[in-house]
Write a structure and sequence with these properties.
Rossmann fold, four-stranded antiparallel β-sheet, 10 strands, alpha/beta, single chain
Length: 311
């Protein structure tokens, strides 16, 4: 393949980045996302081929490539929504397809704007981020027998006095506690949506809806924020504010993985770029991506866009 030299360079850069770490204070050695030799196809024709990459805690990574290049498929493989035909995909050092610690991930899908048809308020959307925490496993000081009884016969167990702790009742009936509601309010404030908390999603602009979904991820206390073309259909002013918000969240330690068609936004905001067209054409710092010919080779055209952005 014509990408061998680039792949070798990207592999070397990736190895150096992994060895030194993107953050000297990173507390965990294992990557947040780790793909090794991943190949996948919906039919006999692969959509992504032999993709290997790792995303460390606190990174801000953008995935770019032409339409049909496998970007959204790669993201679904990262999240365990699809299982590789070959290779391995790991998420927080677990098999991605078996990973079930959902509160650690905030996911804004490409068509999240479809939520504009949902007759619910912004606050109700953000509350959804807390539901993953309403589990019996999250309640301390419970022995296995009590947890088993609560799962098998919750009402009878509560009536018998074994489940009178408020956290247990909340977990059984899906009620949010005062602390949960405080976290929801804090998430709304962080994304600047407190004033819109009681407004229906149907009444929001595209940018406001995306902020509501970011708030839902924050309410879940996610460690990883994954976004698939989040600014499609969003006005330019809202896009700038949106990326300011992502940058602030990343500065606070949240790992960001982003698929984006707006190369100008990628160059301005992401620290690292993965350029994909079924296989990886580039994986490294944004500055090196701008200076490379990876985009031209991946798109099969001259990368005039980057020249204009850089100039």
């Amino acid at each position: 393949m014509s990408t061998q030299d680039s792949d070798a360079a990207s592999t070397a850069e990736s190895a150096t980045r992994t060895a030194t770490g993107s953050d000297a204070d990173t507390p965990t050695a294992e990557p947040v996302v780790d793909l090794s030799g991943v190949t996948f196809g919906y039919t006999s024709t692969p959509v992504v081929t032999d993709v290997s990459l790792a995303v460390d805690q606190g990174e801000y990574v953008a995935i770019v490539g032409p339409n049909g290049s496998g970007k959204s498929t790669l993201m679904q493989l990262m999240l365990g929504l699809l299982e590789p035909d070959a290779g391995t995909a790991r998420l927080f050092d677990e098999s991605a397809v078996r990973f079930d610690d959902g509160e650690r991930i905030g996911y804004v899908a490409q068509h999240a704007s479809a939520a504009k048809e949902m007759p619910i308020t912004v606050r109700e959307v953000v509350k959804m981020g807390r539901f993953a925490h309403l589990t019996l496993d999250g309640v301390g000081d419970l022995n296995r027998d009590t947890i088993g009884a609560l799962r098998e016969a919750p009402l009878e167990t509560v009536r018998a006095g074994l489940g009178t702790v408020p956290a247990i009742v909340n977990a059984i009936f899906g009620r949010l506690s005062r602390s949960d509601l405080a976290i929801v309010d804090e998430a709304l404030e962080t994304v600047g949506m407190s004033a819109f908390a009681d407004r229906r999603i149907t009444q929001l602009s595209g940018g406001q809806r995306q902020r509501a979904f970011i708030a839902r991820a924050l309410a879940s206390e996610a460690d990883l924020l994954v976004l698939d073309e989040p600014t499609v259909g969003v006005d330019a002013e809202s896009v700038d504010a949106f990326y300011d918000l992502l940058g602030a969240l990343n500065d606070e330690g949240i790992t960001v993985v982003l698929i984006e068609h707006d190369l100008g936004a990628v160059v301005d905001h992401a620290d690292r770029v993965v350029c994909l067209n079924r296989e990886v054409y580039f994986d490294g710092p944004t500055e090196a991506f701008v200076e490379s010919d990876a985009l031209a080779r991946a798109f099969g055209t001259e990368a005039r866009v980057l020249t204009e952005v850089d100039g």
